[in-house]
Amino acid sequence: MKKLILGAAIAVMSAGVAFADTVRMGTEGAYPPYNFVDDNGEIVGFERDLGDELCKRAGLECTWVKNDWDSIIPNLVSGNYDTIIAGMSITAERDEVIDFTQEYKPADPSAYLAVAGTDDSAIDGIVAAQVNTVQSGFVAKSSATLVEFATPDETIAAVKSGEADAVLADYSYLAPIAAESGGELILLSPRPFIGGGVGMGIRESDTELKDKMNAAIDSVKADGTLNALLAKWFPEETSIHSAY
Amino acid sequence: MFEFCVDPKTLEGISWIACYLTTPKHQSMYWSVLVVLLLIGLTAPFTMLLGFFGAWLKRSVFLPFQFMGWLYTSTVRGVPELIFFLFVPIALDQLVELIRHKIKCSDWTDAVYQGNDFVVCTAAKMPLGEAEQWVHHTWNFALAVTAFSIVFGAFAANIIDGALKAVPKNQLETAQAYGMSKRQIFFRVHMPQMWVYALPGLSNLWQVLIKGTPLLFLLGIQDIVYWAKELGGLKTQVYQYPHPDIRVWYFLGLLFFYLLLTWISQIGFDRLTKIVSKGQATMGGQAATGGRV
After folding, report:
1. Which one is the CATH code of B3-77+144-277: 1.10.3720.10, 3.40.50.1820, 3.60.10.10, 3.40.50.1240?
2. What is d(CA B24, CA B168) in angstroms, rounded to the nearest whole number?
3. A79–B119: do the CB atoms touch at under 8 Å?
4. N or C: lower Cβ tally within 10 Å for chain A?
């Protein structure tokens, strides 16, 4: 009897919680095509489309929050928002602090961007990367000298100004920049394979949300929605268009 | 904004610039000017209050108060601001949520600190998860004002303490000889005379405060420096208005904005100095009145 009452009480409580629960999605808003702020001031990109679809399928009300990359994990664990959906690779170091859902974008090669005329030996010179990324960790362990920047934008500026010999970042971020530079910037040929796939970061204690999001990711993988989104936002990376 | 802005990629020259500068994203930047001014306007009075309080603690004859005043001014002035702004708002936020949690969810059995996670019940969230975005922004803004006030209050406490000490002792003794009470001496003689010594320090503090607003971004509030960086950065074809890295123009704009603020503040402080110098036995006071002592 006691258990029955308890069970009923929990059911009532969790129903109330589910009704009042708004999931706050934390993102950086500076890393196209994953997530960026468009000219209307809206957060858009691959992860915006995906996140909205996941929330719809999981039956959650979602709002979007922009947060600096530097403090994106501390603000998640202290509860300022409920997920990190910001092109974050699943790594063992991060997994010690937060949990990840299953990946929604497979691991893909990173690339080096440099000014035209640079040869591949630049990857052992001074290499710029965004702070606290898998790429910055990779450069730190290599023989190259690492210079770190708070935003992806500043890493590109560093290469243009000659402060760094090359930038290491995701191929999908660098490719359009090289293509539209009018020959000023090029991608070097080494394409190191760093880190795991990209997943959504969630507080370790928030297993309920993690389960819901995992189920929703299963569902977008199963009916091809995720493949279509990957093809829409990463048109050049044809190898991942039928990843799931 | 304008009707001809429907298809930005076909625009050129002046019309491109007109459309570009009136995008909703640019309007966010124009609004952030007000955010900055509001932050300065709200922080300044709280800073002065905390400054007077800190100076009062330091000057207290009661030793524990004196110690508290010393602890406040020394620790806050010694900790790097960046660390302070990362720590204090998060700590304050958690403290408020913890108190609300204890009151509203007393039947909660799980631990609040689970490993790295800080977990309170949904009802104790500050602001509530379902609250509108502007409520979250306002709350963050209030945390920012608090953090700024605590930091600058410590500096102000030192300035005010020093200025109070600089007032010639015989002025206070004269007041005492006239039979004024301690309170009367402070409000009628001591404080009016200390401003002339405090103003140079306070005007420095004011300038540092004006320049300190980019720290707001640590709290998720976007100020003009953030927008200048964000808007001026390289934009590929994914954006409606692609352009190369033009941050230098935005930073030039910022330069003029901040120089203008400095110039206006300086005029204000010059006037204040004139007012508080009147009749004072200082060089400024004599020069201002043209009289002899």
Report:
1. 1.10.3720.10
2. 57
3. yes
4. N
Measured CA distances, B150 to A167, B53, B85, B145, B153 (Å): 40, 11, 10, 9, 5
Cross-chain residue pair A204–B97, CB shorter than 8 Å: no
ipTM comes to 0.75
For the entire predicted model, the pTM comes to 0.80
A vs B, Cβ pairs < 8 A, gives 109
Residue B86 to residue A74, Cβ atoms within 8 A: yes
| Distances in whole angstroms, Cα of residue A85 to Cα of each of A45, A71, A183, A189, B239 | 11, 14, 33, 29, 20
**pLDDT tens track of chain A, all 244 residues?**
455 444 444 444 443 344 447 899 999 998 989 999 998 889 999 999 999 999 999 999 999 998 888 889 988 998 889 999 999 999 988 999 999 999 999 987 899 999 998 889 999 999 999 998 999 999 999 999 999 998 898 999 999 999 999 999 999 899 999 998 888 999 999 999 887 899 999 999 999 999 999 999 999 999 999 999 999 999 888 888 888 8
Q: Which of A41, A74, A157 is the closest to B245 by Cβ?
A: A157
B chain contacts of residue A79, beta-carbon cutoff 8 Å: 97, 117-120, 125
- B234 and A75 in contact by Cβ < 8 A? no
* A40 contact residues in B (CB cutoff 8 A): 23-25
Going from N- to C-terminal start, the domains of chain B cover 3-77+144-277
